[in-house]
Design a protein that fits this description.
six-stranded mixed beta sheet; globular; 8 helices; alpha/beta; Rossmann fold; methyltransferase; methyltransferase activity; transferase; Malonyl-ACP_OMT; Methyltransferase domain-containing protein
Length: 251
């Protein structure tokens, strides 16, 4: 009997943060540069590959940019919302798509091997699966800040992220006939720690671990601010990097 995968992420906490990201997207002062980068990359990829899907499933694009672009190509679109769409369950019987696009959230699925197997099973023969999300090279500055603020008792403040090698191996394990994993880095300059945290909330990248970390007290926040200040460059800003990964696989 196969053992259930470890519950690293809380589905309830994930649903809450994705819902908050969708709500914040509608606000005038929200940021969406990570989502914009991923949607633009996917749309460009679809054009370069000259895909003409008849049926497509789009998960995680609360801007609706990808769904609109695919609809303009004549595709019949099904939409899944992060936090409601369950990647770890088989699709309903008879569900078949020529293209599946999953944005932002695939790195926060407990049973990622199972999710990829289900995605492949849902594709029509010759169908394409594209997933794009922040990868393991992201948030190096914030990790250092959190470690400094935790002091001698480090806590899991930032969830584990997937790297390129693991992604490629998982796609192969799921049975895809061919796969390509690539990434690029977005470097963002921050004048305040608060703005960095706000941007993470806008993108649904805040904590969602099954076992919550200890609460952040005033002393922790003070140490975090001190650590942020030590990372400032000559212009007073701190650089944070986001590794934007894209997985492309063919059935």
């Amino acid at each position: 009997m196969n053992k259930a995968p470890p519950a690293i992420f809380s589905r309830n906490r994930c649903a809450a943060k994705w819902g908050r990201a969708r709500a914040r997207y509608k606000c005038d002062n929200s940021s969406s540069f990570l989502l914009d980068d991923l949607t633009g990359d996917v749309i460009e990829r679809v054009g370069f590959m000259q895909l003409q899907p008849q049926r497509a499933l789009v998960v995680g694009d609360w801007s609706d940019s990808v769904a609109t672009a695919l609809s303009d190509l004549g595709a019949d679109i099904a939409v899944g919302q992060l936090g409601h769409f369950n990647e770890e369950l088989p699709a309903p019987a008879g569900s078949r798509f020529d293209l599946i696009v999953h944005l932002m959230g695939l790195g926060m699925v407990n049973d990622l091997p199972g999710a990829l197997i289900h995605a492949r099973a849902t594709l029509a023969e010759g169908g394409v699966f594209i997933a794009a999300f922040p990868g393991a090279g992201s948030l190096s500055s914030l990790r250092n800040i959190a470690l400094a603020a935790d002091g001698e008792r480090p806590a899991p403040r930032i969830h584990p992220m997937i790297d390129s090698a693991s992604s490629s191996a998982l796609l192969q394990r799921a049975g895809f006939g061919r796969q390509v994993v690539d990434s690029h880095t977005l470097s963002v300059r921050y004048r305040s720690l608060g703005q960095l945290v706000s941007d993470l909330r806008d993108h649904g990248l805040t904590a969602s671990l099954e076992k919550p970390s200890p609460a952040l007290g005033r002393q922790w926040l003070s140490r975090a601010q001190e650590a942020f200040d030590t990372l400032r460059d000559e212009d007073g800003k701190v650089t944070e990097n986001f590794e934007m990964m894209t997985l492309t696989a063919w059935k």
